[in-house]
Amino acid sequence: VQLVESGGGLVQPGGSLRLSCSASGFTFSTYTMSWARQAPGKGLEWVSDIYSDGRKYYADSVKGRFTISRDIPKNTVYLQMNNLKPEDTAVYYCVPGRSWALRGQGTQVTVSS
To answer: What is the pLDDT of residues 45-76, one digit of tens each?
Structure first.
């Protein structure tokens, strides 16, 4: 399994970013894909899931601001993040089916003025 996240960066509060996660080594279309994040000094926090049938779920902390999607032909899952807040600052990871042990290097998101 290989997972490569990208799209992070420094953004001001209220700004937007779109994260991408390119996946390989498993049958992408049949798996739930998950995003999680880890803020400095804190544990891993689940953010969102997208099921193979298209159902989407979000943590309360991001509901209404983040949108998960997937492009099956490209084996890629996305996380559109709007109205970002300083508390969204974290390293963001994607994994298949909440298998957090498979996570890669992640992508850093910093929300600061």
So the answer is: 999 999 999 999 999 999 999 999 999 999 99
